[in-house]
Amino acid sequence: MIGHRYRDVIAVAAALAGPLLVALVLLPFRTGVSRTNLALILVVVVVAVAALGSRPAGALSALSAAAWFDFFLTPPYQSLLIHRAADVQTAVLLLAVGLVVSQLAARARRLKVITVTDAGYLARIHNTARLAQGATSADAVVDHVRRELGDLLHLRACRFEYGSLLGHPPRLEQDGGLIVGRRRWEVERRGWPEEDVELRAFGNGHFQGRFMLSPVPGERPSLQARLVAVTLADQAGVALDTAGPARREQ
């Protein structure tokens, strides 16, 4: 118990100091590197803190990263004001993506699985969050996620089905595991099964539909990739839930 408390204290300290120190290191590059890339570097710090500590520590580090990004890396510098709309959007996305991936990292630590730190995976989450924030249609987000899943998991095809669940296909779970029938399927050892796999999309706790993944038999997507796939599907679910009943009845 004392060990856990000590680790939580360290995580809170890292949540406060880590983003600040990294923001200071990035100061010389703030005019030569895009602010989106600077924000992604800070997201990696958020993930590291969440992997070390708890969900609150991850959330605190996301808030700290957004604040120091605003203060040091967006003009006017040394101010919490932001003049450019694009910088406002980047700061908001940094906070949103930081919160999402920090919760994912904390969940991964609790499940004793690998955390998502790959820059390419983080960029997929960031780009989807950016689209979800600005899209006028939830269908655009769903279509974007469908393409991302196809590329991320090296699928033959991917489609989205609205409405209720039919049948009992293999299912990709929230922890990145795969259930075939009632048993866990070892993807790393056996690869994908031959039939289509469902990935359910939830928005604010409400089932919105499912992505049907048509895998290449024998492909072995990493646990990191599968966790990112689950996160992308939930982002589509949130977009659908925000669109409201009118969209779901179409």
From TrEMBL:
<keyword id="KW-0902">Two-component regulatory system</keyword>
<feature type="transmembrane region" description="Helical">
    <location>
        <begin position="39"/>
        <end position="68"/>
    </location>
</feature>
<keyword id="KW-0597">Phosphoprotein</keyword>
<keyword id="KW-0812">Transmembrane</keyword>
<keyword id="KW-0547">Nucleotide-binding</keyword>
<dbReference type="InterPro" id="IPR038318">
    <property type="entry name" value="KdpD_sf"/>
</dbReference>
<keyword id="KW-0472">Membrane</keyword>
<keyword id="KW-1133">Transmembrane helix</keyword>
<protein>
    <recommendedName>
        <fullName>Sensor protein KdpD transmembrane domain-containing protein</fullName>
    </recommendedName>
</protein>
<keyword id="KW-0418">Kinase</keyword>
<dbReference type="InterPro" id="IPR025201">
    <property type="entry name" value="KdpD_TM"/>
</dbReference>
<feature type="domain" description="Sensor protein KdpD transmembrane">
    <location>
        <begin position="13"/>
        <end position="110"/>
    </location>
</feature>
<dbReference type="Pfam" id="PF13493">
    <property type="entry name" value="DUF4118"/>
</dbReference>
<keyword id="KW-0808">Transferase</keyword>
<feature type="transmembrane region" description="Helical">
    <location>
        <begin position="6"/>
        <end position="27"/>
    </location>
</feature>
<feature type="transmembrane region" description="Helical">
    <location>
        <begin position="88"/>
        <end position="106"/>
    </location>
</feature>
<keyword id="KW-0067">ATP-binding</keyword>
